[in-house]
Automatic annotation (TrEMBL):
Residue stretches of biased makeup (Polar residues): 1-15
Protein name from the UniProt record: Haloacid dehalogenase
Gene3D superfamilies: HAD superfamily/HAD-like (3.40.50.1000), Putative phosphatase, domain 2 (1.10.150.240)
Location of the region described as Disordered in the Swiss-Prot/TrEMBL record: 1-34
First and last residue of the signal peptide: none
Basic and acidic residues bias (residue ranges): 19-33
Listed InterPro entries: HAD-like_sf, HAD-SF_hydro_IA, HAD_sf, PGP-like_dom2, Pyrimidine_5'-ntase_YjjG
Amino acid sequence: MSNRSAPLSIKNTPCSSDPSRDSRSSRSPRSIDFRPVSTSTLSNDIDFVFFDVDDTLLDHSHAERHALADVRSRYLAVFGHLSVDELQQTYHEINRPLWEKYSSGEIEKEIVKHDRFPRLLNAIDAPHADAARIGSVYLQRYAEHWKYVDGARDTYAEIAERYRVGVLTNGFAEVQAQKLKKFPEIRDRADVVLVSEETGHMKPHPHVFEVAAERAEVTPERILYVGDSWRSDVEGGSRAGWHVAWFARSGVNGQEMNGRTFAFQDWSDLLSRL
């Protein structure tokens, strides 16, 4: 239930283990147009705010990149011929199709978890390296690098003082549970915590949003969703009839938003609309 009381130098590039988050363009950011929604209208029209986790509240991109850098450093004989950028790009090329198949129900999540590192090692001509061990080290390092997106912690706490809040996220349920255990204040303030895996689907499937609204006991048009992925969060939330605040750290890149959606790059901009 809600609680109403109140240095490694590595370039960090947006990325995700979840391919449904992939619609953000790699083109350079452009200015964001906030005109579709007015502050007064939004604050009067919502009763519940759902937040995404990865690359919204918690910095998945930072953790992933630093974990891959750690793996590279530990296994230089395997990965030393690749830069961190090259390793990350190759990892995404392997991981993304697996997540897409998992998202569409073609494969089970265990295939994603168990196949990505053997496929990565095959792709870099190192098939005899210990994929299971390397994958285990990656997950350990990934967890060690979890942190809030800058500004997200205070914003989440402030919004939770004013509205009922919840968490709606893709990802493996057990991994997301570990994240919420490490950052217990997220769960403590949330009236609803839903990992899409529990519904049998992944965002942007409409059933995920239907279940979330039912658990919040709020009609769709009274919900605001805060998330970073154009496909999973913006398109999924919009089709569900929710308001959406798109955390567009890399810019809107020409995406057109409807009257129930707006973009922001700084958390203070989100607060100004509530």
